[in-house]
Amino acid sequence: MDENKKIAVFPGSFDPITNGHMDILKRALALFDKVIVAVLNNENKTPQFSAEVRVQMIKESTQGLRVEVESFSGLLTNYVKEKNAVVIRSLRATSDFENEFQMSVMNNHLSPQMETVFLMTRKEYLFLSSSAVKEVAKFGGNVKDMVPEPVLKRLV
Ligand code: ADP
């Protein structure tokens, strides 16, 4: 039954998804029965890729995995409550900590039953971010080792 399943929501901008995100996703799959990648459709941000394209790239990159991909807008707490899930986020350098800490305390205030689980990045992905990938690709640099194939073909 679905209600006995341990479900995680991995929310983010994923503009675009990188190998760092993919690593967190695969590690989350070892801990949960299903992971829902939730692509934030945020009107205050101007993404390079539309929410539809970001969703599509993640779907293509996660074929065969126990993963669902959706876009969402509005409060994460409402979305997660509906899914009866735990939230997965990741921490890279210390600069991530303050933001993530603030967000998880606020989310906990809004929805006390909601838990956020943090996975530490691996050293290979410590300095990998969607914005770095976009910057390198813009100037013709090689991002082959940084993103899954479905992203690579759209960046080139
Ligand atoms: P947001 O705008 O919500 O931070 P991102 O797509 O940048 O969205 O990140 C989503 C999640 O993935 C965050 O928890 C972030 O820390 C994590 N993440 C991003 N890049 C990496 C990476 N290289 N290694 C591990 N985790 C990462």
Radius of gyration from the alpha-carbon trace, in angstroms = 15 Å
Strand and helix order: EHEHEHEHEHH
Structural class from helices and strands? alpha/beta
Distance between the termini: 43 Å
The main β sheet shows up as:
5 strands, parallel
Helix content: 40-55%
Q: Which residues form runs of ≥5 with pLDDT under 50? A: none
Q: So what's the overall shape?
A: globular
Report on this model:
By secondary structure, the chain is an alpha/beta fold. The chain is built from 6 helices and 5 strands. A 5-stranded parallel β-sheet has the order 3-2-1-4-5, with helices on both faces. Strand 1 (7-12), helix 1 and strand 2 form a beta-alpha-beta unit. It is globular, with a radius of gyration of 15 Å. Adenosine-5'-diphosphate (ADP) binds at residues 12-14, 18, 20-21, 24, 89-90, 92, 96, 121, 125, 128-130.
SSE diagram, text form:
Elements lengths: L6 E6 L6 H11 L4 E7 L10 H11 L5 E6 L3 H8 L2 E6 L2 H17 L5 E5 L9 H9 L10 H7 L1
Parallel strand pairs: 1-2, 1-4, 2-3, 4-5
Characteristic key phrases:
156 residues, alpha/beta, five-stranded parallel beta sheet, 5 strands, 19% strand, globular, binds adenosine-5'-diphosphate
Summarize the structure.
By secondary structure, the protein is an alpha/beta fold.
